[in-house]
Amino acid sequence: MSLLGLGIQYFRTRLLLLMSAVAIALGVAVLFTVLAVMNGFLAELETAIRDLSGDAVIETARTQNFEQHTLQDFEGWLADVDGIETLEPQLTWYGLVGRRGGRSVNDPRSADLSGLMLVGTDEDIAPDVAAELGPDDPLPMKMGVGAAKELGLQVGDEIGVITFVGRRRGRGAPLQRTFKLVGTFSTGRYDQDLNRAVVRRHDLSQLLRHATGFSQVIVRTQADADPLLVAVAIENRLQVVGTAAPGYRTTYDWRNRGGNLLRAVENQRGMLSIVFFFIVLVAAYQLVATLTLTVSEKRRDIGVLRALGATPKRIVRFFVTLGLLISVLGIVMGLALGHWLINNLPTVERWIGGGQPIFRAEIYKFDHIPVAVDTQSVLLLVGMTLLAALIFSLIPAWRASRVTVIKSLRKR
Amino acid sequence: MSDPLPETGDGIQLNAVGNPTDLRLEMPTLMARELCKSYRVGSGKLQVLRGASVDLYGGQICALMGSSGSGKSTLLNMLGLLDKPDTGKLWLHKKEVQNLGQAAAARLRAAGLGFVFQQFQLLPELSAFENVLMPRRLAARGWWSRRKEERRSAREVLERVGLQDRLHHKPSQLSGGEQQRVAIARALVSKPAVLLADEPTGNLDRKTGTETLDLLLRLGREESAAVLLATHDPDVAARCDRTIFIRDGVIFNQVPE
Asked: Which residues of A make CB contacts under 8 Å with B?
């Protein structure tokens, strides 16, 4: 029987010590859950941004540049940049979209109209539809679920699209075309599903009479490549070929693309981590009270141990170990509780909200609560909790080591 | 007929464990000279020990007799390195120990001193076996050092005090006599050179007290420990090899001289 064994016996027989562990467990569980949710937000945000915008995007402030160059030009310029998997041309434009046969597609005051970003892609969104269609045939379009719901559209409905293209000479002319809804998509990001429609790039290019058929180049990087480094390499390369590729100065990696939102979530994660770590800190702080009380109650035991040959250092180690034992149990229980919480968030959400969802997709961008357990964050949480427990255990442990043997043994 | 006791070359007779039978020829295991101790009481000072000198020899059972408040427990605390004298000197195995730091004194207690208290002072959360094992664990260096041997010796000493069937009983499940036997086993498990017992039968009824004393005397002799037994019972003192009388903190008579 070592002193650790005695500590375990104390733990088993004293409810107060178990309560301390429970307090730490609650703090750890809350912080673990908050971190998992915030990391989930960041991870899903990253995935959504990268899916939509690629790992890097080559853009220009002067749209006409894209009309002067082909995709082959870019492939040539960037041939010796490492880490590029693919270059995908994309044509994006804005248009007013409404259900054909609705109140009026031509009436911009109509509530049935919605301004959507039209994304022309080379992805085959309608395999059954012929590549070339007649001028009166409806063109295929896929729409975000939110947008389709907003406009009351079903798959198979015909859609009217009105858009404007500025001309160098003369006024911009309105362009109008009929599309057909061939399907909907859900990116998991509420805002993207509400304001996006995907069409064939070739169709959109024809509608806009766009010369090269793309307004930006989506770069997908190789799995082992760092998107940020690839983006910088592209930027540098485009500057080198500056005269040949004028205006292509702006290259974003996905992190810049998500910009403020990503930074806001990261910032919020940092703030919440600090706030909730205070809960853990307070829980760990009550170890001072719990262990001080234990030292007072076990003064006679300490005296006996000292008489039997325990050095003051050994007594300090015993109480610090007891404190760490409490915190380890608290951490284990907290992580288990936190794990259960993140796996049952919808149920917990219903409990807390009295049946009503607290997490609103229109506010939080996602249609579910994303969670991701980041090992590094968990290790940091465990490490900081243990450190706090260690520091807070030292005070009563030091007091225990100062117990006078004779006085404590004399005490009845 | 038993074998004659061995002798050294210069004619000194040795006992069964190799110590001289004439204790005056042997160096005391524990030697105290002119120990003084006072405690602050309110604004005044209470002088408890006034120059007490004691020699304890291995294999000798010594009674320390005195009335309540005579300084018995204080002297025992000094000899057991539980407290420091104000003045005076103390040697354990020829080593001066009165000024040792807390850690060094604790290590010495773990290695060479055994205690039996009137109130038993067992750890209530631990079983009899775990209580007896504790001094060995405290004396051990490192987590796994000689674990098996420690457990074996704890079991063995509990068998010697007749508690082989009570190994895993908690103190609350044992009678007073059994608890004191556990305390004796705990004091002897480290094979101490000095065993200090503070009124070991004071909390027991007469019959149990006598049994416990028998056990303590027998084991003390078997272990060849220097035993000092504080008591105010003359019957207890009569069964010891030597009696030291203390009054007002002064050793005034030792029988036999």
From this structure: 1-3, 5-6, 9-10, 13, 300-301, 303-314, 405-406, 409, 412
Candidates A2, A307, A310; nearest CB to B82: A307
Residue A410, classed as helix, strand or coil, is helix
Q: What is the mean pLDDT of each run of 10 residues along chain B (257 residues)?
A: 47 50 68 91 88 89 89 91 91 87 89 88 92 88 72 90 90 92 91 91 85 88 90 88 89 68
Taking residues A373-397, report their average pLDDT: 91
Let me know: does B240 contact B217? Beta carbons within 8 Å.
yes
Place of tokens 């070359």: B9
Query: Residue A381 in contact with residue A269, Cβ under 8 Å?
Result: no
Tokens of A355: 């049946």
Nearest to A409 among B102, B121, B143 (CB): B121
Q: Residue B24: how many CB atoms within 10 A of its CB?
A: 7
Taking CA B106 as the corner, what is the angle to CA B103 and CA B112, rounded to the nearest 5 degrees? 140
**Closest residue, chain B, to A7 (C-alpha):** B125
Name the pLDDT band for A80 (thresholds 50, 70, 90). Answer: confident
How far away is chain B from the Cα of A2, in angstroms, using its nearest Cα?
6
What's residue B8's pLDDT? 46
Cβ of B106 within 8 Å of Cβ of A3? The answer is no
Q: Where are the domains of chain B?
A: 57-84+98-255
Cα three-residue angle B107-B111-B112, rounded to 5 degrees: 115
No. of helices (H) and no. of strands (E), chain B: 7, 10
Q: What's the confidence (pLDDT) of residue A110?
A: 52
Structure tokens at A88: 């995908």
Q: What is the ipTM, given to two decimal places?
A: 0.85
| Helix or strand run (H / E) with residue A225 | none
CA dihedral B20, B21, B25, B30 (to 10 degrees): 80
CB-based contact A313 B103, cutoff 8 Å: yes
Q: Is the predicted pLDDT of residue A95 greater than 90, yes or no?
A: no
Residue A127, pLDDT above cutoff 90: no
- Contact state of A311 with B126 under an 8 Å Cβ cutoff: no
Query: What Cα–Cα distance (Å) separates residue B189 from each residue in A10, A308, B112, B134?
Result: 24, 11, 11, 9
pLDDT for residue B2: 43
Q: How far apart are CA B229 and CA B224, in angstroms?
A: 15
Nearest to B135 among A308, A313, A409 (CB): A308
State the DSSP code for A44: H
C-alpha neighbours within 13 Å on the C-beta side of residue B187: 32
A306: which chain B residues are within 8 Å (Cβ-Cβ)? 82, 106
| pLDDT bucket at A157, cuts 50 / 70 / 90 | confident
Per residue in A241-294, pLDDT tens? 765 556 665 566 666 666 666 777 778 778 888 888 888 888 888 889 989 998
Kindly state the DSSP code that residue A189 receives in the 8-state scheme: B
Contact at 8 Å (CB) between A5 and B130? Answer: yes
Question: Least CA distance to A312: which residue of chain B?
Answer: B103
- Do residues B183 and B201 lie in contact, with contact meaning Cβ atoms separated by under 8 Å? no
CATH 3.40.50.300 fits B57-84+98-255, yes or no: yes
What is the number of residues in chain B?
257
Cβ neighbours of B125 in A, within 8 Å: 6, 9-10, 13, 301
Q: Which of A1, A300, A312 sits opposite B102 (nearest CB)?
A: A312
- Which of A284, A326, A276 lies closest to A12, judged by CA? A326
